[in-house]
C-alpha cells in the first residue's frame, strides 16, 4: 500500500459506484424516499389489478411477446411494401 492510503483515516475515504446501479441501490435502501414509495405503490397497484382481473404474470408476458412479434412482422412487411 502506498503512504497516502495508509495516512488517510477511513472516515475520509469516498467510495465511488463504478457499476452504475446507484438508483437501484438507493431505492432498495430507501435513500430516495419519494422514488421508493412510488415504486412500492406502482408494484402494489399492479399486484391488485392482476388479482382483481385474475391474470397472472405469465399471461401478460405472453401477450406482450405476441404484440412485439406481430408488430415486428407488420413493420417489416410495411417497409418492404414501401421499398425501404
UniProtKB/TrEMBL annotation:
Primary location recorded for the protein, binned into one broad class:
endoplasmic reticulum
Biological process, per Gene Ontology:
response to bacterium
Where does the record say this protein resides? Endoplasmic reticulum membrane
Q: Which domain of life is it from?
A: Eukaryota
Residues in Reticulon domain copies: 24-84
Record keyword Zinc present: no
Q: List, alphabetically, the GO terms of the cellular component aspect.
A: endoplasmic reticulum membrane
InterPro entries reported in the protein's UniProt record: Reticulon, Reticulon-like
What are the protein's UniProt keywords?
Endoplasmic reticulum, Membrane, Transmembrane, Transmembrane helix
Q: Name one Pfam family in it.
A: Reticulon
Q: Do the record's keywords include Thylakoid?
A: no
Give me the segments passing through the membrane: 35-55, 61-82
The identity of this protein, by name, is: Reticulon-like protein
Q: What is the lineage of its organism?
A: Eukaryota, Viridiplantae, Streptophyta, Embryophyta, Tracheophyta
